[in-house]
Design brief:
Length: 400
């Protein structure tokens, strides 16, 4: 089994490279494919090996998805807040530096999260029974804070409610298979790709700096806040890394664009690690990939959790090296490739995958969610409010 686990980690890292670099292709999508073929695969291996594949893929993805976010301006939901400071650095010829900062955040937060797992095992078991009856109201407080935190309050509310109503409709369609695929692909994938086609930006030649000057205090604040926010989003249903970044930014002071990118880079990685802890302690899955893990496992012991954490650390070490190497390649090519052609190919791939998983009804949902997903770009509203598609249904589930 040891060699099977190592092979699964290696294959998972390879899959994470693909999902991380190709905009709109998420780990949840690959996890669903794996689940659909698992009855065949389980004749040759066991559930723990398949789960190690998913975990290593997910961790690798959280490192590499910064590359399309920064160089192509096409992030998934978890990297949405990286676009503004990342694109700013890219236009200054510092795209490689921007990616490097997210890698620093992902690696340091991953290591800190691994250290924090023992106390989190005890804390989550103690706190969840107490908070269970108040989760819906806690989410309402968080949503109100996020909507009211800037001057664009009316559009923040409109985007949240529109996305939330869409989520309620789509998630309750009895004939729609895999509703999250067209829903999230439209809101956070094709919508941003379509908008990017209309923005003709000339990318300058990129420079490479092996040393980036960031104050140690800013790094400490970013890593601490990122790990805390990642733990919170891994624990509370409906909250994603984008919302965690907004909350974490309120407890950090003047860390600048560099510090903020370290923070955002780390939250996504920590979120997944603590989602595994949440699954073990309270038997709740907080994201699509972890849901697949929960469906594959019949027995989730502390030993298996430790195996998963080791797989995450191995994948994180490999992803650090891979992200830095591949980002240099992107930095050299970004000013030379035909960006429009790449975007059109990715949109075509997403449409094909949605049709495969969800049929014609899925295509209709993709079109509607894409249209709604374009609204933030046109109004200057933060895209994290589109997570209302998941948060609003969760709130109603707990409150009503």
């Amino acid at each position: 089994m040891f060699w099977q686990v190592l092979a699964a980690i290696f294959l998972g890292i390879s899959a994470g490279i693909f999902t991380g670099l190709v905009p709109g292709i998420h780990i949840n999508l690959v996890s669903l494919i794996l689940l659909s073929v698992s009855p065949v695969l389980l004749h040759y291996t066991n559930p723990v090996v398949l789960c190690c594949f998913i975990i290593s893929m997910a961790i690798t993805h959280t490192f590499l998805d910064a590359i399309p976010s920064i160089f192509l301006g096409a992030p998934d939901a978890d990297q949405a807040l990286n676009v503004l400071p990342g694109h700013k650095l890219l236009l200054e010829g510092k795209g490689f530096e921007a990616v490097k900062l997210t890698v620093v955040g992902s690696l340091l937060c991953l290591l800190l999260a691994a250290v924090m797992i023992p106390p989190m095992l005890m804390i989550s078991k103690t706190i969840y029974p107490f908070l269970k009856g108040y989760i819906g109201y806690l989410l309402i407080v968080i949503v109100v804070f996020m909507v009211m935190k800037d001057k664009n309050r009316f559009m923040n509310l409109i985007v949240f409610l529109t996305s939330g109503v869409l989520g309620l409709i789509v998630l309750n369609m009895p004939t729609l298979k895999d509703p999250l695929v067209p829903l999230l692909s439209g809101l956070f994938g094709t919508s941003m790709l379509v908008v990017s086609l209309t923005q003709k930006v000339k990318i300058p030649e990129q420079t490479f700096s092996e040393t980036i000057r960031v104050k140690k205090g800013h790094i400490a604040q970013a890593v601490g806040a990122g790990t805390l926010a990642g733990a919170l989003t891994g624990f509370l249903p409906g909250l994603g890394p984008a919302q965690g970044a907004v909350l974490a930014s309120q407890i950090t002071r003047n860390i600048g664009d560099y510090g903020f990118m370290i923070l955002v880079g780390g939250i996504n990685t920590v979120n997944f690690v603590f989602s595994l802890v949440t699954l073990y302690t309270i038997e709740k899955a907080r994201n699509g990939a972890v849901i697949v893990v929960s469906k594959l496992l019949t027995d989730y012991s502390l030993t298996i959790l430790l195996v998963f954490v080791c797989a995450a650390l191995i994948a994180g070490a490999a992803a650090t090296f891979l992200t830095l190497k591949l980002s240099k390649v992107f930095a050299k090519l970004v000013s030379k490739v035909k960006y429009g052609l790449v975007v059109c190919c990715v949109i075509s791939l997403i449409v094909g995958l949605v049709f495969y998983f969800s049929g014609l009804l899925g295509i209709l949902v993709l079109i509607v969610s894409t249209a709604i997903g374009i609204i933030p770009g046109l109004t200057g509203t933060a895209r994290n409010h589109q997570m209302g598609c998941l948060i609003l249904p969760v709130i109603l589930f707990f409150v009503l």
